[in-house]
Amino acid sequence: xxxxxxxxxxxxxxxxxxxxxxxxxxxxxxxxxxxxxxxxxxxxxxxxxxxxxxxxxxxxxxxxxxxxxxxxxxxxxxxxxxxxxxxxxxxxxxxxxxxxxxxxxxxxxxxxxxxxxxxxxxxxxxxxxxxxxxxxxxxxxxxxxxxxxxxxxxxxxxxxxxxxxxxxxxxxxxxxxxxxxxxxxxxxxxxxxxxxxxxxxxxxxxxxxxxxxxxxxxxxxxxxxxxxxxxxxxxxxxxxxxxxxxxxxxxxxxxxxxxxxxxxxxxxxxxxxxxxxxxxxxxxxxxxxxxxxxxxxxxxxxxxxxxxxxxxxxxxxxxxxxxxxxxxxxxxxxxxxxxxxxxxxxxxxxxxxxxxxxxxxxxxxxxxxxxxxxxxxxxxxxxxxxxxxxxxxxxxxxxxxxxxxxxxxxxxxxxxxxxxxxxxxxx
Length: 427
Ligand code: GLC
Description:
InterPro entries: 6-hairpin_glycosidase_sf, 6hp_glycosidase-like_sf, Glycoside_hydrolase_63, MGH1-like_GH
Mean pLDDT: 96
Helix content: 40-55%
Strand order of the largest sheet: 3-6-7
CATH architecture: Alpha/alpha barrel
Order of helices and strands: HEHHEHHHHHHHEHHEEEEHHHHEEH
Family: Belongs to the glycosyl hydrolase 63 family.
Distance between the termini: 39 Å
Keywords: Glycosidase, Hydrolase
Largest sheet: 3 strands, antiparallel
Number of helices: 17
Low-confidence stretches: none
Oligomer: single chain
Number of strands: 9
Organism: Bauldia litoralis
Pfam family, one: MGH1-like_GH
Bound molecules: alpha-D-glucopyranose
CATH topology: Glycosyltransferase
Radius of gyration: 20 Å
């Protein structure tokens, strides 16, 4: 298909997946509003309908909990095609939500929306600013009670990179003996060899039950969650988001929020440095219960470049690694090290490419002075979509589309990578 037709198709996908003020990732497989999907969807809408982009941000932040958390799923309308649904999470909000969060990319996107049309977006940017500051503050307290500059995730789904090999070992300590019988819905939509294994799903559900039994109380979860891991992706994305929040607050004249975000960013910058592993040769996740770094690299290893502030000697190790990865596959960037034996080109987050991760990596590379590599990744992303369509993910080996089709955030990234965007500097 020609690019102009793909532009139209991308817009059509966003319109079709629009359920009235919020957008589902794809019909069937993911029939609700997902957190970081909505943020990227807003970026896509911004290419042709800035009002609709702000509406998406508004509906996402309307799901914010009283304690500041912005949930990973908002169950806007009951739909039995997805499991685990509202009753499994046992939360008390209306509409119901899941009990966990997702990568906080929203502040970065909100800053973009504001910068596109500052006067027009001012009122909505001010409202979003307050909600985002509360969400980031929640991360700093609920998920970093010890103040070490690393926020924990309590479930692999909070990483947004659900099935990474990084989670295998921390998950191995999760007791599944109380998980009763249940019926998966994901494998009714997508081939099982592209989805997590049953033993992983059992652990996912055991962690949901843990949170539910503890009424999603942050203190109880911090004290006892069997899964308590500093994901390099979430920490890098939050650091970038804090920097963008500080810049947005500055532009809107809110010095209190600007100061708070800057302080939180400084702490995260120190924490992120501690995710560097010489043994793995990059930034990795850290199991905070056992003080164990992951031993393999994922695409998350490159996200500190997106966060900004990576020391030169570390960047000098990351860039050749990325080039090496790109030499090993036809398309980049694989979600997991393509030279590692655990690499699987089509199974969820163990190899396939996600357009949103490519967008962040390309932003980071461009900001760090590697425009050539950033371009290569954008070119690959567009080539994948041209070849296979707007799939959820793609095989780095042959470019085939995996997972759900007509996927909102893939359409959004197509539009974001083709539309001119304001340059947002990070430190
Ligand atoms: C999967 C992905 C997650 C995403 C969701 C909806 O669960 O792992 O990152 O938000 O699908 O697209």
